[in-house]
Amino acid sequence: MESTGSVGEAPGGPRVLVVGGGIAGLGAAQRLCGHSAFPHLRVLEATARAGGRIRSERRFGGVVEVGAHWIHGPSRGNPVFQLAAEYGLLGEKELSEENQLVETGGHVGLPSVSYASSGASVSLQLVAEMATLFYGLIDQTREFLHAAETPVPSVGEYLKKEIGRHVAGWTEDAETRKLKLAVLNSFFNLECCVSGTHSMDLVALAPFGEYTVLPGLDCTFSKGYQGLTNCMMAALPEDTVVFEKPVKTIHWNGSFQEAAFPGETFPVLVECEDGDRFPAHHVIVTVPLGFLKEHLDTFFDPPLPAEKAEAIRKIGFGTNNKIFLEFEEPFWEPDCQLIQLVWEDTSPLEDAAPELQDAWFRKLIGFVVLPAFASVHVLCGFIAGLESEFMETLSDEEVLLCLTQVLRRVTAPDPVCGGSHTSHVLLHDARGSAVGMEGGRPPPQSVGPAGAAAQAEALAGPSLLCSTRVGGDFRLA
């Protein structure tokens, strides 16, 4: 952000401020610090730590990603992958040419096991068949990117319309057709997590193809994603980042003078919540979209141009949560990587909307099996949308009890047994979750209050940690 006027820059070079110390802000600072034309640079970070939605914590005897989880498309065209490789944060397998050439199409891999709500295992052949259908249709949606018009407004409506055509040609018995639809519904839930939305009916069809899919098999950081932002911080000159300095208002397109800089005039003045004022010639704003939505009317003075403000209002912003469950003994096989949950009475072609308190857990896509930490075994579940927000209104005891019952139900007749553990729950910040381009039907009413940090002890069952899904897991739909 800079003035459109003619205010001159200081002879020693322009003063530049970056608002936000997440990976975008750190990346901007890193680039500018390497340029001799920008000797006066500061990053203003509202919290006590850098990294934003990249956050790794030591839990369960190892490192878990409370925020960003994977590098999607780890190959030469991916700047996150390039930085991680430069800092030596990836292993030999992740850096291999073979890994970088894998074409995933941007789709999540098939589950290792699929559990139905009745307690039976779903045929992986049937799951693969439905995955081929679903992801084939997802790929088709990208073809409307430059189309003059689309057949329906949203991705969800297009998928359901095409699935309906396929269903008409199915020749199996009624129970098999019902199970196929239930499996497809689980893929819809998964895509809601990938796209950061409550429903694919809210994701506009026309721009969906803007998301660029890079080659490479998704990978993780063995020592934590936060190692990346730690390295970026270490590369900056000392005291570049000012912590616990939330910005209140950015005054721009003006002519400001500050006593600390006699004789100088600045086009931008950044006012912080604590009253501190930082004059600048240029400001780069990297705060989360949720924060911009919440503070749009007061964060900029004068207000942003109408077209920019309208863009901020229109871009969708959804909630995703991670749920970590710790087990003393695994009930899954040693080579298991992804556990899928299928609710047999659900279908993407039905708009049934049961009360959230009775069915919020049905939006859970299943669990990713994390690498074992010594004798500790951890599953990471993902859940999106209003169900995710409703979960945040529950106590950790209620969440833990519900999910333990779900796992016992789907793994019958070999139920999951939970021991007594201590648990910590970290609920999401509603201003810092996933981004998508909305379209189609109007969004339903949001449920529950904004998330806030909370800690408590669980009574029984597997140990639990809830967090928002953030950072590199976003898709701009």
UniProtKB/TrEMBL annotation:
Keywords on record: Cytoplasm, FAD, Flavoprotein, Oxidoreductase
GO biological process, one term: spermidine catabolic process
Family as reported in the entry's similarity comment: Belongs to the flavin monoamine oxidase family.
Subcellular location: Cytoplasm
CC terms in the record's Gene Ontology section: cytoplasm
GO molecular function, one term: polyamine oxidase activity
Domain annotation Amine oxidase: ranges: 23-416
Kinase found in the keyword field: no
Protein name: Polyamine oxidase
Highest taxon of source: Eukaryota
Cofactor(s) for this UniProt protein: FAD
KW Flavoprotein (keyword) present: yes
Species of origin: Pan paniscus (Pygmy chimpanzee)
